[in-house]
Amino acid sequence: MPSVPSSPIPQTQKWQMSLGTSEDHQHFTCTIWRPQGKSYLYFTQFKAEVRGAEIEYGMAYSKAAFERESDVPLKNEEFEVTKTAVSHRPGAFKAELSKLVIVAKASRSEL
């Protein structure tokens, strides 16, 4: 019986998320990224939401910094930032995402 060459099984793509708070606990930062830089995944959409806080800054990147390379931000027309979410813009997002950064201010002090 002839043997059939096996194709390599793709490795699971690893992502990381970090959360941090300011000293006064009024602001927090959430970063979601691919440590190896550019993702090989094809994203049709994305959305990251916050609750109990209002987004003051949000940025999305097509490529995350890796070794000597820098972050490559998405074009402004590819994503939008509202008070509660960072998300793709339908029809404008080019399906590349490797990092999201959100800085939000807590609406109450116990957050």
What would the keywords be for this entry?
globular, 111 residues, 8 strands, mainly beta, 40% strand, 0% helix, five-stranded antiparallel beta sheet, three-stranded antiparallel beta sheet, single chain
Q: What is the compact description of this entry?
A:
Pfam families: UPF0556. This protein has no helices and eight strands.
Helical run tally: 0
Give the radius of gyration: 18 Å
Task: State the end-to-end distance.
Answer: 64 Å
| Spatial ordering of strands, largest sheet | 1-2-8-4-5
* Main sheet attributes: strand count, strand direction, barrel closure: 5 strands, antiparallel
- Portion of residues within helices: under 10%
Measured by DSSP, the beta-strand proportion falls in: 35-45%
How many domains? The number is: 1
- The outline comes out as globular
Mean pLDDT reading = 87
- Structural class label: mainly beta
Record field, number of beta strands: 8
What does this structure look like?
The chain is mostly beta strands and 111 residues long. The model has no long low-confidence stretch (mean pLDDT 87). 0% of the residues lie in helices and 40% in strands. The chain has a five-stranded antiparallel β-sheet, with no helix packed on it. A three-stranded antiparallel β-sheet has the order 3-7-6, with no helix packed on it. It has one domain (24-106). The protein is globular. One of its GO terms (biological process) is positive regulation of angiogenesis.
